[in-house]
Amino acid sequence: MSNYCYFNGQILPEDKVRFKTNDLGILRGYSVFDFLRTYNATPVHLDDYLVRFENSVKSFDINFLTDRDTIKEKVEELLFWRADKTVDVGIRLLMTGGYSESGFYAPELPNFLIRIEDLHPIPLARYAEGVKIITHEYQRELPEIKTTNYSRALVIAKAAQIQKATDALYHLDGNISECTRNNFFIFKGNTLVTPKSNILRGVIRKIIIELAKTKFEVEERDIYLEELKEATEAFKTGSNTRIMPVVQIDELKIHKKQVGHNTRALIQMLDEYLHATTHQTI
Amino acid sequence: MSNYCYFNGQILPEDKVRFKTNDLGILRGYSVFDFLRTYNATPVHLDDYLVRFENSVKSFDINFLTDRDTIKEKVEELLFWRADKTVDVGIRLLMTGGYSESGFYAPELPNFLIRIEDLHPIPLARYAEGVKIITHEYQRELPEIKTTNYSRALVIAKAAQIQKATDALYHLDGNISECTRNNFFIFKGNTLVTPKSNILRGVIRKIIIELAKTKFEVEERDIYLEELKEATEAFKTGSNTRIMPVVQIDELKIHKKQVGHNTRALIQMLDEYLHATTHQTI
Known about the structure:
2 copies of one chain form a homodimer.
Chain A: E1 4-7, E2 10-13, E3 18-20, H1 24-28, E4 31-39, E5 42-43, H2 46-59, H3 68-80, E6 89-96, E7 111-118, H4 124-129, E8 131-137, H5 151-162, E9 167-172, E10 175-179, E11 183-188, E12 191-194, H6 203-213, E13 217-220, E14 233-238, E15 242-249, E16 252-253, H7 261-278
Parallel strand pairs in A: 8-9, 8-15, 12-13
Antiparallel strand pairs in A: 1-2, 1-7, 4-5, 4-6, 6-7, 9-10, 11-12, 11-14, 14-15, 15-16
């Protein structure tokens, strides 16, 4: 079943939306995006995503011509047009530099797409058993801006697969930042630690830090690769992923490859939070 | 007048070619390209560009399904369909990761576009008088691969314009690499110097080095910002630009803001070379 898109002012079935070949996202990677999903059919923390998206657009000097209320309205409208309103979906906001006559210089009008996407469920066994990730030396350009520049992540995805890993953890000179599309956390006993710099500030990351503070010590600071040996638990977080336990990093096994108690506790706290947030009555 | 494109096996008018919204170039910047132009209606050094394009595609682990002879054939066909065969055009090769169901993982089939583009002539006064460029600390990711990741170049283009400059010169910790879309050279007397590392290996750069060797000393090596003070002339090169004299870098005036003799000599040598190459009879 085709989803609906919002594209430059119009709501259209996805297969009616096309980009011309001189779009600056296509020709020059001049494009930012954001991605959230619904839980219980409700977008969670939509404002946080919209603020981040606006910041990304402004950082790229792209003319932002659609105000936040209009975007919210269009998201609601797109969600209304879903074939089955009980099924959760992804919501992607994408702003490119627009159609360029010269193939380089940006025109006045950007291209703005909101795309409703089917979610590709992550196998539940991964949550139960945890996953292996590999380390990779790399620092994303402009890490705080959600650019579409994920080519390295795609190349690494293949390398990770060969090593039976599901993701890669980026570091620069040993200083850990984030996974290819997720934020990263470790537990050292009852202290939760997560990198502070050169990361995308995830909305789920923010929620987890707030939730964790009610039960654990929380430190936002640099983590170096050597410190992973002292990790008693590890996990990664993302808007679709939520909390994914990490039980192996390269050859290092975390907590004997078992998902730890604190991670389980956080998973439950986040589930309860998302449930409560999406069942609020105003 | 609309140009023709080659897209995934078909020759079509440009306005009939569109990308679906789940193309990995659009969603994830997973895309490489190359660009050349005709001189005297003839593509120059096409093989060099095709080899570089193939290397870019392979570096990105994208399935390359079209062999070099087929690409050449399609380029010829597209050039044949031009409205006016005496007018020079740009030829852009673009390969994206293809249409992704998940919005991240790459499918088997890439999207391959060859696009004939109108050239946007550079004002001739610039060649006569030389241009100002600004310096900018930045190192392109994967500099030897022609990825579509030019977002920094686009943001800088606006900053340069404000400073009445036409381009920016990238350096990392003072070590100069290249301009946003051009290679960079200086003369120190009769010695021509150009950066060797962390650059895109330009086809025009290669031609110029070969031509210059017949008349000057040529050094391919690191150039640091401080050395610019000793430059007696400077210029940048590109497939469309050919040789553009640079007479000012930030506040530093080169050769009293006059285009130097050696640069003029090279411009003439390149013109003659391009003329001879495009009027060869086999």
